[in-house]
Amino acid sequence: MLKKVAVTLTLVLTLALAGCFGGEDDGSVNDTIENVREQTVKVCNYLPTVGSVAAILTAGNPAVVGVHAIATAICGAVTSVPQGLVSSDVKIVPMVNGVPVDGQFVN
After folding, report:
1. What is the C-alpha separation between 89 and 69, in angstroms, rounded?
2. What is the pLDDT of residues 2-45, one digit of tens each?
3. φ, ψ for residue 13 (rounded to 5)?
4. Minimal CA–CA distance to 20: which of 51, 62, 50?
5. Phi-psi region of 17 (alpha: psi -120 to 50; beta: other; left: phi over 0)
6. How far apart are CA 39 and CA 16, in angstroms?
């Protein structure tokens, strides 16, 4: 049962991503994800994970559309959150469209 749910979720996410890009091939989806990652590094020296960018794209917020807008939203999230632990039990996680943003600052 759990395997069926995982396969279904993967299929739904894949179709959702394809829908975001007008049914283009997987190469253009991957290109978009890489373009967002590169733009984010240019804007604020932060490299988000592929999974984070893909999840933001599938969240489908009309206010966050386009490579630059997504990169700017990620930078706003990761630079406005204090880095590290707030207390021994709480870690603040940057979010875009309700999606946790994972990655790292780069030089």
Report:
1. 33
2. 444 333 444 344 444 444 444 445 568 899 999 999 999 999 99
3. -65, -40
4. 62
5. alpha
6. 23
